[in-house]
Design goal:
This protein has ten helices and five strands; from the N terminus they run βββααβαααβααααα. The protein has a three-stranded mixed beta sheet with strand order 4-3-5. By secondary structure, the protein is mainly α.
């Protein structure tokens, strides 16, 4: 489908801006047995949906988890559900059922939501890193610095900034004319492959700046996380009792694993994009989009003793209620 180009007679020309009625998502090219990969993504999505919904339900129902830290944990689970839902169902519909044409407006909406939730995943990991930093480096001031108000302010500011950034990115896309190719060389309406289609016909410098800004916003939290763990490492060496040091280290291990799962594949792909084959890059980025939301509740939340106790208590209560209902019905 690489020959698809925009026909000026079939476009909406508003103030000389050529907007095609559709784009073609090229996706995975000449890879055998890709249907197995799509089935795998479907299972990953289902596990992610169930796991993160369970986490949100337990946090909502158990008052003992209504602490500032779990504001960020709930937001992480919510973002994971939304991010997976924005990505996987459309990806399966596009490639598993060969519906690779996507309308102009649907393409921009897909771009907005996928990058919005991707940036929010990065911000959520940063907020959780801030929680660990204060807890280990300033334990006596933890309850003054990490409050419900401060966590709501941090998460609210993150959402507002992410929404504003993506509105800006989409706005600059709407100023472009697509007068040649309509084939997006990615598995969704990716920002870079999309605006580059307009390069022969429009000035894409603002879009390039937005692309660098999105990448910067994605990676700056990683710099903060690395810096926070340098401070945490220094603080751990000042702890005299080995058991206290091990306990503090355990609270950071799960978060570090999540950070590695989220950031390493993205860094690897973007820094080595010139030597990585296109299909390998696309598969790597698609896995980066779906695996962290599945692993977050398993690695981070379900390993937390406080959360496990709350989950067991709620499950026991649910079983007892079901048994009582069955007993009354008989």
């Amino acid at each position: 489908m690489s020959y698809l180009t925009s026909d000026p007679n079939q476009t909406d020309n508003i103030d000389t801006i050529i907007r095609p009625p559709y784009f073609f998502i090229s996706g995975f090219i000449d890879i055998p047995h890709m249907e197995y990969y799509y089935v795998f993504l479907c299972f990953v999505y289902i596990i992610s949906l169930v796991g993160n919904t369970f986490v949100m339900m337990v946090i909502y129902m158990d008052n003992s988890l209504h602490s500032p830290k779990y504001v960020a944990v709930f937001n992480l689970a919510f973002t994971d559900v939304c991010g997976s839902t924005a990505m996987v169902p459309k990806l399966l519909d596009t490639f598993l059922f060969s519906r690779q044409l996507i309308s102009y407006n649907q393409c921009l909406a897909s771009l907005f939501f996928i990058f919005l939730f991707l940036n929010m995943q990065s911000f959520n990991l940063t907020i959780l890193s801030y929680d660990r930093l204060v807890a280990i480096c300033c334990p006596l001031r933890y309850h003054m610095m990490v409050t419900h108000r401060s966590m709501f302010q941090l998460t609210g500011a993150a959402w507002a900034f992410a929404v504003f950034l993506m509105f800006l990115a989409v706005f600059f896309i709407t100023r472009l004319s697509f007068c040649r190719s309509l084939v997006i060389n990615s598995y969704f309406c990716d920002h870079g492959p999309l605006f580059r289609l307009a390069a022969p016909c429009s000035d894409v410098v603002p879009n390039k700046v937005m692309g660098y800004l999105i990448a910067t916003v994605l990676f700056l939290p990683m710099v903060f996380i690395i810096s926070s763990y340098i401070c945490i490492t220094h603080a751990l060496f000042t702890i005299t009792l080995p058991q206290d040091r091990v306990r503090a280290l355990k609270t950071c291990t799960s978060h570090l694993i999540l950070v590695a799962i989220f950031y390493l594949p993205v860094n690897f792909t973007y820094f080595l994009h010139s030597i990585i084959p296109t299909n390998a890059r696309i598969i790597n980025l698609s896995l980066t989009s779906v695996l962290p939301p599945m692993l977050n509740p398993i690695i981070y939340v379900l390993k937390t003793e406080e959360f496990k106790e709350s989950a067991k208590k709620l499950l026991s209560k649910s079983r007892a209620q079901r048994a009582e209902v069955l007993h009354q019905s008989t």
